[in-house]
């Protein structure tokens, strides 16, 4: 039944033109998500932690705007092949783009770090069009039909796509060491990470990007896909690489970069992630060849 419901929903959405579909998803999300108590409460928990002075009216508006953006993003990813044809929507900016171009020309691999903010897939779409195809990692879905659909769509933005597993980090490292580009969303809680400030509050944070950069010497470049007011155009921001330093210093800088972008565009972040929940702090970094360096949600 779940399979049929998803198939029927996507079949209906597929009939709509690109912009109409995005607006439809945004309107539906703005209406429906805040009315699901578990989802509303999850978003409100994080929002109140970071913005404790919000009034109830401000909080409700914040949740609605976030829900609309989340749903619009979801619609673009579910129809990623079509989204890839709208390159006119992607507007690159920032010094990191020249860093990536030089790395590509020199055959040097790069790790891109980003967040569930705005439309992160715009980064990989733009880079692929520029001859800098970028792989990514994802979590397997329990529904086999949805898994097939989701995987086929995220592959449209770049390869390789690696499912999280105990060998996933090894596959990612091999790809980067061969001169490949790879993107990691580093804003989720990490069950074996470090307790570091994120949006002003300690949160379990992956040290994978900094650990791998220190071990293998490749640059870590923060990149973000930020929506403009019309909901469709995306500023693809390529920042300066993280400053080479020890693992914790680099990871703090990564958190600060991500936090700054979220604070500038708070309703574009995926507040459904329980970023500060169930903290079990660890003081040691486990081996880079295992699953311990990968994020958790």
Provide a brief overview of the structure:
The chain has 297 residues and is an alpha/beta fold. The protein is 46% helix and 15% strand.
Written account of the structure:
With 297 residues, the protein is an alpha/beta fold. The protein has one domain: Glycerol-3-phosphate (1)-acyltransferase (3-Layer(aba) Sandwich). It has 11 helices and 9 strands. Strand 6 and strand 7 (201-205) form a beta hairpin. Helix 2 (18-32) runs antiparallel to helix 4 and helix 10 crosses helix 11 (247-264). It is globular and about 50 Å long. Mean pLDDT is 92; it is low at 279-292.
List keywords for this structure.
297 residues; alpha/beta; Glycerol-3-phosphate (1)-acyltransferase; 7-stranded mixed beta sheet; two-stranded antiparallel sheet; 11 helices
């Amino acid at each position: 039944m779940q399979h049929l419901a998803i198939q029927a929903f996507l079949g209906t959405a597929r009939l709509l033109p690109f912009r109409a579909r995005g607006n439809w998803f945004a309107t539906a999300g703005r209406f429906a998500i805040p009315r699901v108590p578990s989802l509303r409460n999850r978003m409100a928990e994080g929002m109140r932690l970071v913005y404790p002075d919000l009034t109830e009216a401000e909080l409700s508006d914040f949740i609605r705007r976030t829900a609309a953006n989340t749903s619009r993003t979801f619609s673009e990813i579910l129809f990623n092949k079509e989204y890839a044809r709208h390159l006119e929507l992607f507007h690159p900016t920032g010094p990191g783009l020249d860093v990536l171009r030089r790395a590509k020309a020199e055959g040097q691999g790069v790790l891109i770090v980003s967040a569930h903010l705005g439309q992160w897939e715009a980064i990989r779409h733009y880079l692929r069009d520029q001859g800098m195809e970028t792989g990514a990692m994802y979590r397997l879905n329990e529904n086999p039909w949805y898994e097939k659909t989701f995987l086929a769509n995220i592959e449209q933005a770049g390869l390789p796509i690696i499912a999280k597993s105990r060998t996933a980090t090894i596959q990612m490292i091999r790809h980067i060491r061969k001169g490949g580009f790879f993107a990691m969303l580093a804003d989720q809680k990490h069950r074996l990470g470090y307790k570091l400030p994120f949006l002003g509050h300690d949160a379990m944070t992956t040290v994978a990007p900094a650990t791998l950069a220190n071990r293998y010497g490749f640059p870590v470049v923060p990149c973000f896909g930020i929506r403009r007011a019309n909901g469709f155009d995306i500023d693809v921001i390529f920042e300066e690489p993280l400053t080479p330093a020890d693992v914790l210093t680099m990871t703090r800088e990564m958190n600060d970069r991500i936090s700054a972008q979220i604070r500038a565009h708070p309703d574009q972040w995926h507040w459904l992630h329980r970023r500060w929940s169930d903290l079990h702090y660890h003081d040691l970094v486990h081996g880079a060849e295992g699953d311990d360096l990968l994020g958790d949600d």
